[in-house]
Amino acid sequence: MKWTYIIQNKLKASFFLFIVLLMVLLNNLQERNDAKEVNGLLTSIYKDRLVVENFNYNLLDNMHRIVLLTSDTRVDAIKSKEVKNLIENIRHVIFDYRNTYLTMEEEENLNNIFQLTFRLNSFANRGDYASCNKMATESLPILNDLSLIQISEGKAIKNDADKLFSSSKVTSEFEFAMIIVIGLIIQALVFSSKTINIASNVPHQLN
Fold first, then answer.
1. pTM value?
2. pLDDT along the chain (207 residues), means of 10
């Protein structure tokens, strides 16, 4: 009978609709996961790159001031206090720096700065400004390398974000296509329902 054939097709269409809806659901979950990853990348850019670059600036500024102050090696009480305050500022910045995400290269450079700062403090306590000047000057290229790392890592994060945005665009287009398919299936189901109703109203002798 025609109506049994129509029902079979309707069941097939319903199963296909279920599969399409499942694909849309999975696609939606993927989009949510991508959104979380993008949010994580943006957070990383702020916490681990922009904030860290501010730490680099502070370290460079303090070290450069020490270089200027100790260029004159004569012992001076006021100068000694200023140098020690700058060293203390550097210590605080290094402590905060270590609480951020560090690459192996960053960690190595930061440890070198910490060691130089330790020696710098020792020379400052002895009033050896010539050695202080040398330690502070040696730290400047290392701090510059740390800034370059921020640029490199920032570019890597940007590339990851671009990939996620591209993936999100593809999944959005896929989801839109699936919505169209769902609409067509629903239309087919509605049409088949009308056909069944018409078929059921036809006298048995005409079937």
1. 0.59
2. 52 68 71 66 62 84 92 78 92 88 86 91 89 92 86 71 66 70 68 53 47
